[in-house]
Design brief:
The protein is mostly helical. It has one domain. Helix content is 76%, strand content 0%. It is built from ten helices and no strands. The longest helix is centred in the C-terminal third of the chain and has 30 residues. The radius of gyration is 17 Å and the shape is elongated. The two termini are 20 Å apart.
Length: 191
C-alpha cells in the first residue's frame, strides 16, 4: 500500500464521517430521528464512498477505511461491536470489489450496500444486552424520555427491518453516488 493510498483512505474516511454525522444529528429530535438520520446518512454516504472507490486499486483499502470510520465513531460512544461489524462487512465488500476487478460499477454499488449494513452496529447490543446498553453512561446522557422512546421504538422487529433497509438504502446511495460521479465529478476532472 502506497502513501498515496493511505492519504486517499484518510481523506475519504473524513468526508464519509462528516457526511453521515450531519444526518446523525437528527437523533437529537428523538429516537425516530435516530433511525431517519441514519437512513438519510446511508444514502448520502454513498457519494463519498463511491468517489473513494474510484481510488481503490487493491485489497485492504476498504477495510482500513472501515477501521478509521468506526474507530472514530467509537470515540463518540458507539459500542465496540460496531467496529467489529464494520470490519466484517468491509471484508465482504472487499471480496465483492475483488470479484469485480475493482472496476465493476455493479459490484461497487453492491459493495457499498453491504458496507452500509455496518450502520446497524450501534444497535447490535440491543439484542443481547439491552438493559446494560440503555443504562450505560453514554446513553444516560440522552435523557429519560429519549431512552424510554428508544426502548419502545427499537424492538427486535424494528431493528431487523432497519438492518434490511440499510442494505436497500445502500443500493440507493451507491447508485446515487455513481450518478453524481458521472454527472458532476467526471466533468470536474475529479475521477
Amino acid at each position: 500500500m502506497s502513501p498515496r493510498d493511505l492519504i486517499n483512505i484518510g481523506i475519504f474516511a473524513a468526508l464519509f464521517i462528516v457526511t453521515i454525522s450531519v444526518f446523525n444529528l437528527l437523533e437529537f429530535i428523538g429516537p425516530l430521528g435516530l433511525l431517519i438520520g441514519g437512513a438519510i446518512g446511508i444514502v448520502a454516504g454513498g457519494v463519498p464512498f463511491m468517489l473513494f472507490l474510484t481510488r481503490v486499486r487493491h485489497a485492504g483499502m476498504v477495510t482500513i477505511f472501515a477501521v478509521i470510520v468506526w474507530g472514530f465513531l467509537l470515540v463518540f460512544a458507539n459500542p465496540p461491536i460496531a467496529v467489529v461489524l464494520g470490519v466484517v462487512v468491509a471484508l465482504i465488500a472487499e471480496v465483492l470489489l475483488w470479484l469485480g476487478g475493482y472496476r465493476s460499477r455493479r459490484m461497487s454499488v453492491l459493495a457499498y450496500a453491504v458496507f452500509s449494513v455496518s450502520a446497524t452496529g450501534p444497535f447490535v447490543p440491543l439484542f443481547y444486552a439491552r438493559h446494560e446498553y440503555l443504562s450505560s453512561a453514554a446513553m444516560q446522557q440522552m435523557g429519560t424520555d429519549f431512552l424510554d422512546g428508544m426502548d419502545t421504538l427499537l424492538s427486535p422487529t424494528v431493528l431487523i427491518a432497519y438492518a434490511v433497509s440499510t442494505l436497500i438504502l445502500g443500493l440507493v446511495g451507491g447508485a446515487l453516488g455513481l450518478r453524481l460521479l458521472d454527472k458532476h465529478f467526471r466533468k470536474a476532472g475529479l475521477v
